[in-house]
Task: structure prediction
Amino acid sequence: MNKSIFSIIKMDCPSEENLIRLKLDGISCIKKLDFDIPNRELAVYHDGEVTEIETAISTLNLGDKRRSTEITHQTDFKENTNQKTLLWYVLVINFAFFIIEMSTGILSKSMGLVADSLDMLADSFVYGISLLAVGGSIIKKKRIAKIAGYFQITLAIMGFIEVIRRFLGTEQLPDFSTMIIVSVLALIANGACLIILQQSKSKDDAHMKASLIFTSNDVIINLGVITAGVMVHWLGNNKPDLIIGIIVFILVIQGAIRILKLSK
Result:
């Protein structure tokens, strides 16, 4: 058996981990995937050549590079029996905060919160498709991935149009306190998801590393919305909220494109 180590620069949260798992689903030579998110590394235990695996990972455009491939004698791989339960937990948390951020974003007139809600929805899609992959058919997974990807892109484009309209018009200032409070709660929720998903690892990996939380793309977005809320209050201007909204919408579209690649 061989062990191939990949460096994946853009793998900064469990959502990317699940995208990679889904992309590699169905490649029969793979025996085990071992993710190290803090160090952005993936170890693949497999039989035969690594070419098919390397090609599949590269289609996600996550900045991957194969560092090494060597023979290993490890054959004892423990199965994760609670994967489905953990995925349900993080799916519910992400979808709940999609609803919370979307509703409070509309009420408070914050495009930053609306955009972040779509990022939460994007993660919900990934975890939902992952649930289908646990015992589900590849054809069904690909069909759902295509629908989810196009739906996400549509919402993001609608968000862009609204941001442009607000840039050109004179809109009421967003409620900065709502932006900050809801983003702090979303930050806590993302941290909870990271901790929950770590329970699927072995006992040696169960303790959260600080770098795991603070390199997460979702957490950086939450901090960005909090900062935008402070700037809105300080400057008396809605531009910081619109700028963070644009940035997050771009990230949402990038995530949607990766989801669409799962349908191919």
